[in-house]
Structures are given as C-alpha cells and as structure tokens.
Design brief:
This protein is α/β, with parallel strands linked by helices. The chain has two domains: 112 residues, Aspartate Aminotransferase, domain 1 (Alpha-Beta Complex); 252 residues, Type I PLP-dependent aspartate aminotransferase-like (Major domain) (Aspartate Aminotransferase, domain 2). It is built from ten helices and twelve strands. The chain binds pyridoxal-5'-phosphate. Belongs to the class-V pyridoxal-phosphate-dependent aminotransferase family. SerC subfamily.
C-alpha cells in the first residue's frame, strides 16, 4: 500500500474543488472581486454602490427562480443555521412537523424541539439514504423538510402537502411550507409557489462564501412573521424575538437593499456574479441540466465500476448536486481521499456523521462536467495503483 502516488497530469481535472459546501468559486468571480474592490470593499453598506449590488442580487434571484407574484426576498447574516432559529422565532406558531432523513433535516427539527415557547415538534423520520415528507398532522402550522439532504445526497420532492390548503382545526390560517434549499437552490428544479419559505446559504450552488442566508417568502409567510412578532412584543413573557432573529426586520432591511447589520460585501460581489452567470447561460433550466449531467456521470460510473455503488438506492431520490458513492469495504476510502488531496483534488469525503466508506462529490453548477469525468478517472487510477 502506498500513500504517495502522483496522478499523471493529463488525468487531472482543471479544477480540483468538489466540495459540498464550501464549494468551488469560479475564476471569473474572483476577477470581478479584484476589479471591483476599490469602489465597494471598505465602503458603507448603507450607501448606493453596495445597495445597488444587493438590489441586483434580489432581481437576479427573482429572475432565476421565476419568483411568484407577491413573494419577496429577505437576507441576513448567519447562514441557514441562523435561519433555523429565525424560523422557530418568527414562523412556527405553535407546532411544526418535520421530515428528518439526515443531519441537516435533524438539526432544524432539534432547534424547534429546543425552543421553549413551541410545542414538541412532530417528527417523520426515515433511514439515511431515503427521504420522508411530513404528513398532514392535526394542530401543525408549519411543515419543514430539505429539498436536498446534503449529508446523504438525497433529493426530496418540493410540493405542498396534500390536505393543507385549508386552515388546520383550531388555527386561523393554513400551515406554512418551509423548505431548506441550501444545497439545492440553483442546482435542482423548484417551483417556488409550492413553498412559503425557500431558504439557502450561498456557499453551495451559488459558489460564494458562507455566513449569510437568503429566503424567498410568500405573502402568507410574511404575514405569519409579522403576527408572531407583534404578539411577542405585547407578551414578551411567552416568546422573545431578538432583533437578530426578527424575520420582519430582515425583510424591512432587504426592502431597502440592506441588511440588519454589516454584511460581507465581498461575498455580495461573488454572489451577484454567480447569479448573473447562471441567468446569462439560460437560468435554472441550464444549471439544472448541467448538474444533472454531472451527477449522471458519477452515478453511471458507480453502477458500472465494480468497487463502487450509489449510496442512494432509489434512482429518483439521488441528488443532482451532491452525489454519494459507497466504496467497497476492501478499499480504504480515506487513503483514496488522501492521495487525491496530495494531487490537488479536495473535499470528496463523505459526511463525517455518516461514518461510511464513502465518497461525496459536489457537482454544483460551477463544476465543469468534464472535470467530473476527470475526477472519476483519477479515482480509478488511484484505486488501480494504491
Ligand atoms: C450546508 C447546509 C446547511 C447549513 O448551512 P450554513 O450556511 O452552514 O448554516 C443547512 N442545510 C443544508 C441542507 C445544507 O446543505
């Protein structure tokens, strides 16, 4: 066994970043950042130049996602993890139901379970490598799941749960559909009208940096947050909504092309460039086709080559943005990953919590399909030579 192996230059991908987040940032994004920095970085985020970029990001997202009438885009610091707490503070009225099928779906459910002012959430759980949507449940005012479970590479459908169009018994309004799009947004098809809240951080398909969240909000979601926050103001003993977790404050800032507190301006430049790149190339139809092509390369390889197989058994649920591949137990995947890293190919390890002999390959829009092919050839080369 060897830990030192040089992969022939001609086999290597042009870019070796295949992480599931943070993910590859394109060269053109960096060129724009280095060209624009002097008029933007180190200047006020409350003045026209930066506000102009925030406005451009919102317009670009509206175009990319074909934002339905009445929906609005909010943003704030803290990433999707912060948004989970915000959703508990401002969107879940009393009780939520969750589809739980991996680490990220579980983390949001845990947030709700730990919020002292919410009732115990109803959890619909399925084994890793599968998904389950929450079922219609009495007294539930928010249904939550993830479009793409990044820890396992499972894609779940996004559609309103049957039977929820009318208000549940005892509730003044119908339940909200709150979907985590963090590793799907920009890579996997979505009909935003099937959600009330679709949120994500941009360090996955948007090839930017983390630390910020974006959310597309339906009129019902905006109304829900406003009602909950108003009620909390009157009765602070029941529920405390800190400013940082106020969705209404985030939205009001977004309407003025700002954020509640100071954002990373460099990240806005990266994000804006990526959105324009996606839209200029043909929008979501183009990027989803590109990701599905890259994902197929990985899954076809995994079905063809004897020492690997797709982790997700149901082909329909295999993610088109994060492909998870089990490696035969006879082969130590950590050794493959170590050799790949020495050769400049990084971040293809499985999710740490899953503890499997697994490769996990981010095939977001920024990743060139031909680089995915090169990666697979490199893995074959390493396995043949180690
Ligand atoms: C990465 C990820 C998160 C966490 O995002 P942060 O920006 O690190 O908070 C949440 N949900 C999903 C599905 C993710 O892939």
């Amino acid at each position: 066994m060897t830990n030192n192996l040089t992969i022939p230059e001609k086999l290597l991908p042009e870019d070796g970043r295949f992480g599931s987040g943070p993910s590859k940032i394109r060269h053109d994004q960096m060129t724009e950042l280095s060209g624009e920095w002097k008029t933007l970085l180190g200047t006020s985020h409350r003045q026209a130049p930066v506000k102009h970029i925030v406005s451009s990001i919102k317009d670009g997202l509206s175009e990319l996602f074909n934002l339905p009438d009445g929906y609005e885009i909010a943003l704030g610091n803290g990433g999707s993890t912060a948004f989970w707490d915000m959703a508990c503070a401002c969107l879940i009225n009393r009780k939520a139901a969750f589809g739980v099928y991996g680490s990220f779906t579980k983390k949001f459910a845990d947030c709700a379970a730990n919020a002292p002012f919410l009732e115990e959430p109803v959890i619909y759980e399925s084994p890793v490598g599968t998904y389950t949507l929450p079922k219609p449940t009495e007294g539930v005012d928010a249904y939550c799941w993830a479009h793409n479970e990044t820890s396992t590479g499972v894609n779940a459908p996004v559609r309103r749960i049957e039977g929820l169009q009318t208000a549940p018994e005892g509730l003044p309004e119908s339940a909200l559909t709150i979907v985590d799009g963090t590793s799907a947004a920009g890579a996997i098809e979505i009909d935003i009208s099937q959600t009330d809240v679709y949120y994500f951080s941009p360090q996955k398909a948007f090839g930017s940096e983390g630390g910020i969240w974006f959310a597309m909000l339906s009129p019902a979601a905006i109304e829900r947050a406003s009602q909950i926050e108003e009620a909390a103001k009157l009765d602070g003993a029941t529920r405390w909504v800190p400013s940082f977790l106020s969705l209404t404050k985030a939205l009001n800032n977004s309407r003025k092309d700002q954020t509640l507190n100071t954002p990373s301006i460099g990240n806005f430049i990266l994000m804006n460039n990526q959105i324009q790149w996606l839209n200029d190339n043909g929008g979501l139809a183009w990027s989803t086709a590109r990701c599905s092509k890259s994902a197929s390369l990985v899954y076809d390889w995994a079905e063809r080559v004897p020492y690997v197989q797709p982790f997700v058994k149901d082909a329909e649920s295999r993610s088109h943005s994060v492909a998870t591949i089990d490696v035969d137990d006879m082969i130590n995947v950590d050794q493959i990953i170590g050799i790949l890293r020495q050769n400049g190919i990084v971040d293809v390890s499985g999710y740490r919590g899953l503890h499997r002999n697994q490769l996990r390959i981010g095939v977001f829009p920024s990743v060139e399909p031909r680089d995915v092919e090169a990666l697979l050839n490199c893995v074959d080369y390493v396995v043949a030579h180690m």
